[in-house]
Every structure is written in C-alpha cells, then in structure tokens.
Amino acid sequence: MGGAHSSLGTGPTRRTLLAGGAAALLAGCGRRDPNALSFWATGYEGDYAPYLLTAFERATGIPVDRQSLPGTAAHEKFLTAFAGGSLPDVLMLPSGWVAEFAMIGAIAPVPDAALTGDTFPGVVRPLTWAGVAHAVPWSVGSQVQFYRRDLLAEVGYDAPPGDWDGWRTLGARLKRRHPDRFAMLMFLNWWDTLVTFAGQAGAYPLKDQETRGNFRTAEYREALGFYASLFADGYAPGVSSNEVQDPLAAFAQGWFALYPSGPTLLTDLHRRTAEIAPDRWGTARMPGPNGPGRVSAVNNSLAVSAATKRPEEAWALVRHLSSAESELHYQRLIGVLPARRSAWASPQLADPVLRPFAEQMEVPARLPTIVEWERIRAEVQLVAERVVRGGLTIDEGLRAMDARVDALLAKRRALVAAGRIA
Amino acid sequence: MTRQERAAWLFAAPVLGIIALVFVLPTLLAFGLSLTDYSIYALADWSNLRFVGLGNFADLLSTPLFWRALRNTALFAALGVPMAIGASLFTALLLHDATVRWKPVWRVALFAPYVTGVVATAVVWRYVLNTRFGLVNWALAQVGVAPVDWLGDPRWSIPAILLFVTWKVFGYNMIVFTAALAAVPGELMEAARLDGAGWWTRFRHVTLPAIGPTLLLAAVMSVAGFLQIFAEPYVMTLGGPSQSTTTVLYFMFEEGFKWWNLGQASAVAFVLFVLILALTLVQTRIGKRYEWL
C-alpha cells in the first residue's frame, strides 16, 4: 500500500529521480562483467557460491556473476526471468521444479549421461522430462527429526520413537512435564511435514494419469488425521513460519523438543554452539505409521538455460559445482549433503548425525513430477491449515483437497484428453 | 475548433499520448488477456492458448478464495480508511495547536514511518507483535490482558496489520492536513469563538468545511490505497493465517506471478479496476454535493 500511495500521491519528484539516477550510476559502476557466466542460486547455496566459484574461475579463467535469490520467491523469479528472456546461464532448481521448467523449454537437456550417474535411487526421475534428464543432481536431503537429547532424557527417552503412536505418547509425556512448552514444531504454512507423513503412510496424492486429486483414501486420511491430532492435542503449536522469527533459538531454549527439518539446520546448529551445545541434540529418521519408512526427498539440482549463448562453459560450471570434491567442500561450508554417492565414502560424512539422512535417501517416497505439483502441495497445505485451525473436519478437508486439486488440474485434464501431453 | 482549442489540444497531446500508452493500452491488453486461458502451458507452447470469453470471470465468482479476498479487502478498507485518516487528522490538529513547541521535530518524527522501507518496518513490527516476546503483548500484560496471538490468529491478523499500516501511512495525510489547516482563515475562527462556539462547533462548522476538499482527496487516495493493499500482508503474514489476510491484490499476485495464470490474474485486475473506479465515482459525487470539488 505504501508503494501505491507514494506513486499516486507524490509522483516522480526530483528527489526520487535523483536517487534513481544515483542508483543507476552505482549499478553501472558495479563489477558486473559482461563476459561473466551468470549463476543464480537460493539460500545458503547462493550466499556461499563465491567460495566454490573461485576455484572454477582460477582453473578456467571464466568469470562467474552470482546472484542469491530468496527461496520463497525463487519460483516466480525464475518464471518471470524466463518469460522476460533473462534467465541466467546456470541455475539451481529444487528438483520438483525441473519438469516444469523443462516443459516450458527454459532449460536444456543434460548432454552427458555421466553427470547424472553416481547418485541415490529416485533422484534422477524427477529431473527427467520426455525421457531425457534436464538437470544434474546437486544436493540431496529430506526431513529428519532433530531432537533435544536432554529434554527427551527428562521423560525417559534416549531417542525419539520411529512410529506415530510412539510419537504421540512422547508428545503427551513432554506436554505433561512442561505444559507451557510443546513437543514438536511444524510450521502450518510449510508443506514439508505433511507431505513426509503422507509418503510414510504410502499415500500418493494424484490419480488417473495425474489428472485428479487422490486425497479421499485411507492412507491420506491416516496421515492428515495424525498430523492434525498433534495440534489438536496441544503437542505442536499452531504457528506459521513468520511468527517464529528464530526457530533455532526457540529449539535451544527448549520451547519444543522435536523439530522435523532438513540438512541446512545442521549448519546453524554447528554455527551456534554457544546457544545449543552439540551433545544436547541428535537426529533420527522421521516416524512412520509402523516405524520409519519411505520419506519424500527434498533435493536440489543444477540446470543450464536453453537460451544460454555459451553452453560449453555453462556445462563446465555445472560439472565443476557437481563434482564430488565441490559437493564435499560445500558440505563442510554449509552442511548440504552431496548428491554424488561416491562422495559419501569420505570420512567427513561418517558423522552419526548424518546417518538418518543417508538411510532415508536409500528409500525415497515417490512424488508427482507434473507442472502443477508445486502449487498443489501449497494449496493442500492451506486446506490442512484450516483443518488444524478447526474450520474443517478431516473428511471435509480431504474433500476440499480433492475439489481444489481437480480444479487446478482442469487444464492438464483437457490437454491429456486431447493427447497433447502424455 | 477554434485556434485556442487547437493550441490547448496541442499542449495536452504529449500528456494524453503518454496516458494512452501507459494506461489505456495496458488496460485494454489486460482485458484482452483476461478473455484467454493464458497459463504456464501457453508459456510453453502458444498453441495451448484458448479464447474463453468471460470464462475467467465466471470461474472467479465460483472461487471461494476470491470472495474471501474481496471480503478481507473490504474489511481492510472499511476499518483502515477511517483509522488512517482519523489518525492523520488527529495528529494534524494536535500539531496545529499554538501551544505545541518543537513542531518541525514532531512533524519529522511522525512523517518518518511513511518514508521508511515497508519491508524493514514490517520485520520490526513482526517483533513488536510477537506473541511471546513482543512489546504489544508485554504492554497488555502490564494491564492484565492475556497475550494475543496477533499474527497467528485469523481473527486478529487483520487488526494487527491495520495497526502497522496506520502507523506507516498516517504521516503523509498528516502533512497534507497540516497544510490545509494552516489555510483555515484565522478571523473566521476568532469570530466563531466570540460568538461562543465551543471546540467541537468550531471544528464542525469552521475547520471541517475549510479542509473539506483536502479530506475528500485524502479519502479517495486512501480508499484506492487500501483496496490495493499487498506489501504488508505479503511481508508480515504471507496472506495467512488460514488466508485471513489474503487481499484481492495478493490473490492476483499469486495467480499471476507465482503460478503464471495470467488470464485469471488479468480478470482479477480488471474486477479490482472497476471496483476502485466505481468507489471513486461515488466519492466524487459526495464531494460534489458538499461543493468540495
């Protein structure tokens, strides 16, 4: 609203013009090398890319211009960049987006099969479009339970249970011991944990050639029921990510004892040992209905723009970034886990806190790879949030999910029926 | 056409040309786009594009979230406009009082939020509104009120954001009102005072008619601004909790730029355009009746 106000209310004053001119001048003075390869990445990967890029720049003499994107806005930024013809030469994509960007013709097929070999099961499948891999696996990950050893010991546990009933029992005990605290933290606006639970329960979200929602199933009902019960019984606080400014600090203070999260939390935990000593936390596999099972992966990959003018050099950069050596270097820097299986032979990955990740990587749950999937999981989570906040019952929620997903897939249904997409 | 008229048209032509180029043309294009099913499939292959007539508008009317977004936006505007203008007018009247010292300092301090970046201030306000550690809940606790889950409870999220928005924008209209108040004739005030008019009567019958046109301008701008509220919920709540702060513009942004359903998003934009135009027409009619225009 402020923006609308200023543009309507004041118009371009001399001052804003001057400021704009100054900004343009500064940008002009910035060291944006016209000969540089451009590389966009999100999160820590983007922030720390210069550390990996210096070796590449030294070895090849090709300068690289790196941009770090916020993860929450990356999807629209990439799409807008493609529509505007300004995609970078090399981009980091969450693996779930690769099929979408391959379909719109934004990214080029991988020219060398060796680049996509040497990885974990199920990693290349979502990167494949029309039978050809369009991105190179870069890092792998999934949610595991991060838990507070000391808080669990207070209620008589060495490690958190691996099954749902056990999780609820632990939740009840933790809650009884500290009624003003919580057992676990699962953000209501993040889809990861519900998707993980659904995968554990063996639910697959779509049916009929992925043209309709498949939520009114016994498996999905079980997963959503379990998820909602954790909030209903007060084991988990009904909060969104924007309300907890520093979840790690809250974890360190013991506001909750279990925190399903991905590998990047490891980095923060290693960095902030003054707040939370290394002997006070551990990791365990995510709980399943009857013990740990298949867990959906959260992987990242590297792709090359289909419109790049320098494909050879772009692929050389991908080759460098995805080498076992670079991936291990990155693991030391920011904790992301190498997608190359051969890198896992390194003693640096023998740390016991990484074992749950490695075990889960071997048994990934299958996820849809259709264009609409990114939106579907976001909208399904919106319905789940309404179930948790009490607007809907479980069955109403499942029906709402099916209805919403069917509406989102209308265009895809029409295209499949017309035989335009497989 | 007389010579004078020709000259007038000639001088107005550059501006009219620019308006046609940056306003009329995009509006027509957006309306054209809203009659198609432009989506990410059309981005992949133009042959996937179809003409759907008013289908997008019919779809919108049957989308519950659109109605929700409309209701949320109406709530933002209905509560926000009086709050923001009331705060502006109140502070302007305070600053106008002859007994107030250090006026420039107060003006700068109260105007500062308006020129501060919305993202930076929203981040600070998220801390202020934090349920466990926030300043607001701490203050409430001092008077014995239980903590309010400002940004996490669907019933409180709109008031919480309005609190922030009001604080953020009232400075602009405050400055405008200060200027308008300075133009209220002093002798009229004196005459009213001599006739025995109290504080309220003087405000109602001397001040208000004098600043009427300014008030109308502020109302038109505020209504248009509040109907297009986007950045604040985007930064503070991401449209949540339970989509209680999803506004029409936020809905349009998600449809269009996040999911690339530009056909649907253009339909939303068009509906919003018609809505703002209609409300502004109503406001100008009211203004005309009081002879403020």
What this model shows, in words?
The complex is a heterodimer of chains A (422) and B (293). By secondary structure, chain A is α+β, with helices and mostly antiparallel strands. Chain A folds into 2 domains: 32-141 and 297-350, D-Maltodextrin-Binding Protein, domain 2; 144-296 and 368-417, Periplasmic binding protein-like II (D-Maltodextrin-Binding Protein, domain 2). Chain A has 18 helices and 13 strands. In chain A, helix 9 (192-200) packs across helix 10 (218-232). Chain B has 293 residues and is mainly α. Chain B has a single domain (59-289), classed as Orthogonal Bundle (MetI-like fold), CATH 1.10.3720. Helices cover 74% and strands 0% of the residues of chain B. Chain B has helices at residues 3-33, 40-44, 55-61, 64-96, 103-115, 118-128, 135-142, 157-182, 186-194, 199-227, 231-236, 248-258, 262-289. Chain B is flat, with a radius of gyration of 23 Å. At the A-B interface, helix 1, helix 5 and helix 16 of A face helix 2, helix 6, helix 8, helix 10 and helix 11 of B.
Précis, in short:
The complex is a heterodimer of chains A (422) and B (293). Chain A has helices at 2-9, 14-29, 43-47, 49-60, 74-83, 98-103, 149-154, 164-177, 192-200, 218-232, 247-252, 264-271, 311-321, 324-334, 355-362, 373-388, 394-408, 410-417, and strands at 37-42, 64-69, 90-94, 128-129, 132-133, 136-140, 144-148, 206-207, 212-213, 258-261, 281-284, 300-304, 337-338.
- How would you name the oligomeric state of the polypeptide chains in this document? heterodimer
Shape of chain B: flat
Helix proportion of residues of chain A, in percent?
40-55%
Helical proportion of chain B? over 70%
What CATH first level of the largest domain in chain A would be assigned? Alpha Beta
CATH architecture of the largest domain in chain A: 3-Layer(aba) Sandwich
Task: Sketch the major β-sheet of chain A.
Answer: 6 strands, mixed
The average pLDDT of chain B is 90
